[in-house]
Write a structure and sequence with these properties.
The complex is a heterodimer of chains A (110) and B (116). Chain A is mainly β. Chain A has strands spanning 4-5, 11-14, 19-25, 32-38, 45-51, 54-58, 61-66, 71-76, 85-92, 99-100, 104-109. In chain A, 0% of the residues lie in helices and 55% in strands. In chain A, strands 2, 4, 5, 9, 10 and 11 form a six-stranded mixed β-sheet that branches. The N and C termini of chain A lie far apart (38 Å). Chain B has 116 residues and is an all-beta fold. Chain B is 0% helix and 53% strand. Chain B has strands at residues 4-7, 10-13, 19-25, 32-38, 44-51, 57-58, 67-73, 76-81, 90-97, 105-107, 111-115. In chain B, strand 5 and strand 6 (57-58) form a beta hairpin. The chains are: A mainly beta (110), B mainly beta (116).
Chain lengths: 110, 116
């Protein structure tokens, strides 16, 4: 079983819709949970990170962590065409080694 | 946020030659730098962890004699793909870490390597 599972299936949504992404993980030692956005042929850029369980909101983005279920989510409200990218979840124990999911390609259709 | 510059952004080389990729932290000193490899529609796979002035730590299955990593200063790490073969064609990405939690990792723009 991989440490981090993220269904890589592409996701197409109309502009203005809510995008919902999620990852599951198997290692209960993970404490930091990150979401990265990666545009085509570019390096990932950090969107948000959460420490331990709970919700975190930043503008149109909300990250949720449920450690009891080993499940994390990212929600994008009022999606825009500029949000079209691949979104990767990543996790760490706090030792700066990151374990990544496969990423979800999101396409927001105008 | 902090800036990590990776160069070149793309390179095409002949089979059997070597290619060097540079990763620089432009406005901060990175205690640790990481090298990843990413295949199309796949996750980032950690290849090695690099600390300034010491030998890199390679992940299982990564050939250290093929992927040479040098971390000569707190702002520069290099990855050299030696005797490249077509199967080494991939997207290589570096990151530089300013902290220890993994939440302060900044990524370079990646290098697309094509071996012909």
């Amino acid at each position: 079983q991989k440490e981090v599972e993220q269904d890589p299936g592409p996701l197409s949504v109309p502009e203005g819709a809510i995008v919902s992404l999620n990852c599951t993980y198997s290692n209960s030692a993970f404490q930091y949970f990150m979401w990265y956005r990666q545009y085509s042929r570019k390096g990932p850029e950090l969107l948000m990170y959460t420490y331990s369980s709970g919700n975190k909101e930043d503008g149109r983005f909300t990250a949720q962590v449920d450690k009891s279920s080993k499940y994390i989510s990212l929600f994008i409200r009022d999606s825009q065409p500029s949000d079209s990218a691949t979104y990767l979840c990543a996790m760490s124990h706090g030792n700066n080694r990151l374990a990544f999911g496969k990423g979800n390609q999101v396409v927001v259709i105008p | 946020g902090a800036v990590v510059s990776q160069h070149p952004s793309w390179v095409i080389c002949k089979s059997g030659t070597s290619v060097k990729i540079e990763c620089r932290s432009l406005d901060f000193q990175a205690t640790t730098m990481f090298w990843y490899r990413q295949f199309p529609k796949q996750s980032l796979m950690l290849m090695a962890t690099s600390n300034e002035g010491s030998k890199a730590t390679y992940e299982q299955g990564v050939e250290k004699d093929k992927f040479l990593i040098n971390h000569a200063s707190l702002t520069l790490s290099t990855l050299t793909v030696t005797s490249a073969h077509p199967e080494d064609s991939s997207f290589y990405i570096c990151s530089a870490e300013t902290g220890v939690s993994g939440t302060e990792a900044f990524f370079g723009q990646g290098t697309r390597l094509t071996v012909v």
